[in-house]
Write a structure and sequence with these properties.
It is elongated and about 100 Å long. The chain has 2 domains: 224 residues, Up-down Bundle (Multidrug efflux transporter AcrB transmembrane fold), CATH 1.20.1640; 74 residues, Alpha-Beta Plaits (2-Layer Sandwich), CATH 3.30.70. It is built from 12 helices and 6 strands. By secondary structure, the chain is α+β, with helices and mostly antiparallel strands. Helix content is 66%, strand content 7%. Keywords: Cell membrane, Membrane, Protein transport, Translocation, Transmembrane, Transmembrane helix, Transport. It is found in: Cell membrane. Forms a complex with SecD. Part of the essential Sec protein translocation apparatus which comprises SecA, SecYEG and auxiliary proteins SecDF. Other proteins may also be involved. Part of the Sec protein translocase complex. Interacts with the SecYEG preprotein conducting channel. SecDF uses the proton motive force (PMF) to complete protein translocation after the ATP-dependent function of SecA.
Length: 369
């Protein structure tokens, strides 16, 4: 932990660093590849919409020895061919979801299932969800997501600038696309818990992005009045300065979510925990990635198109070329002054101290006569 803290301090002071901005095309390529994979999975497999969105019946049985696959076959047979999903609950109970099942069909299906599973009819809890209610919930979820996006863009444009707001919006869409694509590929059911998880990860993703943007805004203040660093270099220093903080917050947030996903969902078999935790786990990881590798490099690309930033880059390049030429002209035994470049700016080391001259050299110690 002490080594990680020392590394964070050195990154913050600019003594060490990684060129995130210079390698941005690699990160763009990785993101495009992952996004295309997610979109293909979404187009081919589609989302497994839960009963809350598609409508149908949810039947919860008491403890039974029937397996999940056998119960699914019995439910589809009892409902006349309607699609059924079965989840094993704690204590041997079953949660059976049958899509497109109305009120008139629910009672006969409940009685037939009780007979096949050999459990009392009154111990099977049946809940009906109408398709119109599910459609209304889905529309409200999309509306809430759209309002959230608009408010985020407006706030970031006011607090920072429109380029940062645009980059943050692209990063959010990137995170949502990857999360939804993973849901399609894995086949997890989309429930209201999934929507809650998606809205939650947007906040986490924005948190990391805003931290980097705030550091970049402070570091780039009056940037055109100096000739030491370009905007891309200042952006790169901002990422490195907040890198350890972003990693720490992401890891701390992922640990309990991983517990929900792998322990709560995998071991205990709790379906609702799977819905929320998968969205949180994938979204948090994608949000941490996009805030470092996507959002800030996009801001740098947008800023570098401005005439003043292009002029700044030319002045910085000319000054460094002049400093390099002067250094080359100096004799080898001279001690040249360090050039103004990002590498030299972060170097530290012991400074040579002048030799102290003693006025009483060769004179014995004692009082002067």
């Amino acid at each position: 932990m002490s080594k990680l803290g020392n590394l964070g301090a050195r990154l913050y002071r600019g003594e060490v660093g990684y060129d995130f901005i210079g390698k941005r095309k690699i990160w763009y390529g990785i993101s495009i590849l992952i996004t295309i994979t997610a979109l293909v999975g979404l187009a081919v497999r589609g989302l497994n919409m839960g009963i809350e969105f598609s409508g149908g019946a949810v039947l919860t049985t008491p403890k039974t020895s029937v397996s999940s696959s056998e119960a699914q076959h019995l439910a589809e047979s009892a409902s006349g061919g309607h699609q059924a999903m079965v989840q094993k609950l704690g204590g041997g109970a079953l949660r059976i979801q049958i899509s497109d099942l109305d009120t008139k069909q629910a009672v006969p299906v409940q009685e037939k299932l009780a007979e096949d599973l050999k459990v009392p009819v009154k111990e099977i809890n049946t809940q009906l969800v109408g398709p119109s209610w599910g459609e209304e919930i889905a529309n409200k979820a999309w509306l809430g997501l759209g309002i959230f996006m608009v408010l985020v863009v407006i706030y970031l444009a006011i607090a920072f600038e429109w380029r940062m707001a645009l980059a943050a919006l692209i990063a959010l869409i990137h995170d949502l696309t990857i999360t939804v694509g993973v849901y399609a590929l894995v086949g997890f059911e989309v429930t209201p818990g999934t929507v809650i998880g998606l809205l939650t990860i947007l906040g986490y993703s924005l948190y990391d992005t805003v931290v980097v943007f705030d550091s970049l805004k402070e570091a780039s203040k009056d940037i055109t009045k100096q000739t030491r660093f370009t905007y891309s270099e200042v952006a790169n220093r901002s990422i490195n300065g907040t890198l350890v903080r972003s990693i720490n917050t992401t890891v701390v947030a992922l640990l309990p979510v991983a517990g929900l996903l792998f322990v709560g969902g995998g071991v205990l078999g709790a379906g609702m925990l799977n819905d929320i935790s998968l969205a949180l786990f994938v979204g948090l990881a994608a949000g941490a990635y996009s805030s470092i590798f996507i959002a800030t490099p996009l801001v740098a690309d947008l800023k570098n198109t401005e005439p003043q930033m292009k002029a700044l880059a030319k002045r910085v390049k000319a000054k460094r070329a002049s400093a390099a030429a002067k250094e080359a002209e100096q004799p080898q035994d001279d001690d040249p002054e360090p050039a103004d470049d990002p590498a030299a700016a972060g170097l530290v080391g012991p400074r040579s101290q002048p030799v102290a001259r003693s006025r009483g050299r060769g004179r014995p110690s004692g009082k002067r006569r």
